[in-house]
Structures are given as structure tokens and as C-alpha cells.
Amino acid sequence: MAQALLQPARGTHDLIGEEYRRHLHVIETARRVATLYGFEEWATPIFEDTRVFARGLGDTSDVVSKEMYSFEDRGGESITLRPENTAGVCRALVSNGLTQANLPRKVFYAGPMFRYERPQKGRYRQFHQIGIEVLGAAEPLADAEVIACGWHIQQELGIDEGTVLEINTLGDAASRDAYRAALIAYFTAHKDQLSEDSQARLEKNPLRIVDSKDPRDKALVAEAPTIHDHLTPEAAEFYAAVKSYLTIFGVPFRENPRIVRGLDYYSHTAFEFVTDRLGAQGTVMGGGRYNGLVEEMGGPPTPSVGWAAGVERLSLLLEAAELTPEAPRPVAIIPAGGDTAEAAALSVLQALRERGVVAEIAYKGNLKRRMERANRIKAGAAVILGEAEIAAGTATVRNLDAGTQETVPLEELIRALAATGASESAMQALMAEMLEAEEDAGDEGDEER
Ligand code: ATP
Ligand code: MG
Known about the structure:
By secondary structure, the protein is α+β, with helices and mostly antiparallel strands. The protein has helices at 17-36, 50-57, 62-67, 86-95, 140-157, 173-189, 196-201, 207-210, 215-221, 233-249, 293-296, 311-320, 339-354, 367-376, 387-392, 413-419, 424-448; strands at residues 40-41, 47-49, 69-72, 78-81, 105-114, 126-135, 163-169, 254-255, 266-275, 283-290, 304-310, 331-336, 359-361, 381-386, 394-399, 405-409. The chain has two domains: 18-172 and 232-320, BirA Bifunctional Protein, domain 2 (2-Layer Sandwich), CATH 3.30.930; 331-442, Rossmann fold (3-Layer(aba) Sandwich). It has 17 helices and 16 strands. A hairpin with a 7-residue loop joins strand 9 (266-275) and strand 10 (283-290). The longest helix is centred in the C-terminal third of the chain and has 25 residues, at 424-448. This is Histidine--tRNA ligase.
């Protein structure tokens, strides 16, 4: 009997073809922009001691209380697949003894995260995040720089028109204590209208209720007091400074006093980039300031700020904006003759690849079959090598879009391929070679002097 077809586990997905091209484009763009802002990439383990998250994220957060992939390994240790990476980065800072020298540390990361959630569009059990953290900076300029970097990445991706930056402050500890008391008083007066979850959270962490997605809670939250009536002068000043730096950086924002973020570790700045283009999954990037997390990991007080963004959600925005990057178009190398032609074709193939041109050869087939395959792999140009051409040290370059062709000396192959306009890698190779020739000429000039 035939075996049942295996499917990917619920909430996971394969990244193939244009979907993975979008995905990689998000990560590569983020990596490039983060480098411009002075961030260095770290890779921390995908699984950690469960305490890293239980301590770091706070046990009233949804992530810790409901969404973690935790299991006991064969040695009896409690292990958790990371649901986010901020706790791991802070743990790494402490474990590697980096809490004293060279602060602030500016860290970029990208990789898979795991949360046991109900899968839907833009929400998966294995998903991917990009993120940045500035570790060891108490200044509001760090908050603004982190936000500007996130905004810049969205601009580079071309999706910034579809998202809005919403910011808020959670104040300092004194502001939050006062706010907590006000929230407890308000929600207690309406306790019977709250969801069961929120009734349970009321005494322990009423801030969490403000972040609730339950419609019963949302109605109450709309009328709840905001933190702005409870900010200490220092906290208000910090918030004002962040906003003024954002204005200098030219980053547009909207204030939203309902943003509190889902994890327990935040203080001062909290922000989200939201969109109305992804249905219920409206947040693409979220973050803020967290001042106690490194201490939770056993390090010294290390004020920090950062954000994380869902790669799948950014990728869906790229798709919606029809901004899927094209796969590079190869040049098809086509021998037309016997073994001599085949050997010459393989040499040309290798020489082109060494010079940076994306080139392909079919493993077998006659001229017609090879031309068919060239079309199937969307080659923009073909290099045809017949016996006579090889003898003369030439090749025929065929523009597969226009159907035109010319026979050129092998030394001019890259120029001719670039001229078809159908091979971007050939154009880049030509430009690089021209630059190099210019530099060589410059060097010679220097020597004469
Ligand atoms: P949400 O409110 O959508 O559940 P969150 O507040 O739990 O998001 P964060 O922990 O702040 O999300 O993670 C940052 C970003 O990671 C989110 O804005 C989102 O883009 C992405 N993200 C979070 N959970 C998932 C998931 N299960 N699948 C896909 N992307 C996710
Ligand atoms: Mg969530």
C-alpha cells in the first residue's frame, strides 16, 4: 500500500521559489541597513534553557504562559525553542562576559522563532524574525536611532507607505506604579465585563489587559486611563526627547497611548509599526526599551532598547506591493557539435562563472532540446559554440528576448552578453572589469610620475 503523504507540521511552512526570494530579500535588506547604523550580527542558539525565557519575558506574558515550545531533553533539562531573541541576546551578553567593555553593543539578528499559536495568514508556529538591540545605552537617542533603523529598512524594502509607526511611553518604575494602581482601580470597577484571562491578570499585571485582543477587554480598554496622566517629569522628558530626535531623523510617527507591548520587560519607549494590509495580523515590527532584562540574566543593570519584526509579515507586504525580486536570469551555454564543442562550452561556462556571470549548461540534449531548456530556465541570452566558431575563436551570442544574434571574438563575450540587456550579472561583470581597467591605467600613471 502507498505511504500516506507527509505534510509539514501544523503552523510550519516550506520556503521555496519566489516566497523564499522575498524572505531572503527582507533579511538581506535588513542586514545591509543595520550595518549602516553600526549594528553587528550575532547568532545565538535556537534553543535555550527554559529559564532564559521564563525569567526574561515574565510569567504573565502570553508567550510564556501559553505559547512556548518547552520540553525535557534526554538529560532531563528543560529546554525551550526560542519564542523571541531578545532574551537570548541578553543571556549571550552576560554568558560571554561582554557586560562591561565596549558598551553600548549594537546587535542585529535574523532567524527562526517558535510559538505555539493558532496558525493563520501571517501567524505561524515556526516563523522568522529580524531584530536589533542596543545594549547598554540609557539615552533617548538610542531609542530614536533604533526606530529610525527599522523605518529605514521598510523604506529600502519599498513598503513604508503601507505601515504607520505608533509610539508610546510606559514611563519609569514610579510612573508605572502609579498607572498600575489607576488601572487596577478602573478594571476592578468593571471586573465582571473582563475576559477570564484578564480577570486573572488584574492584580498581577493589569498592563497586560491593555494589550489584550479579546473584544470584551478591548471595549473597556478604550475608556481606560492612560499612562500620560501618571508620568513622572523625568519620564515625560525622556519621551519628549525621543519624539524630537525622531523628528530630526525625519521619521513620521503617531502617538498611541494603548501600545504597551506583550512582554513584561519594557519601560519608557514602546512602539509598533502597524499595517491595515494583512488582516488581523496588523503588527509588522514591535519593540521598545527594556531596562531590567540583562539583570534578569545575572548581569549588571544594562539599559537597552530594540525591536523585532516578522519576516513573513514583511514578505507578505512585499508580495502585496508586487515587489517580489526577480530570480537572476542565467546565460545558457549551448555546444553545437561533437566532443570538441562540448569541451569548449564547458571552458566558456567556467570562465563566465569565474567572472561573476550567472551561467548554465544542460547536462545533455541536442541543439533544439538545449534551446528549449534555455527558455524554460528563463535564460536571457545564449552562447552558441559550433565547431567552426570554436576554430575561429568566436562564439554566437543570441538575445533570447529579441531573437537577434551576433558572432563575437571570445574576448568580447562579456561585452556582447551585457549588450543584450538580458543578463544583469554580465552587465555587472562588464562594469567591474571596466573599473578595474581604469584603476590599472591610473596605477600606471602613478608609476610614471
Ligand atoms: P501579535 O500581536 O501579532 O501576536 P506579538 O506582540 O506577539 O505579535 P512580538 O513578540 O512583538 O509579537 O514579535 C515581533 C513581531 O514578530 C510581530 O510584530 C510579528 O511581525 C512577528 N510575529 C510574532 N508572532 C508571530 C507568529 N506567530 N507568526 C509570524 N510572525 C509573528
Ligand atoms: Mg503574539
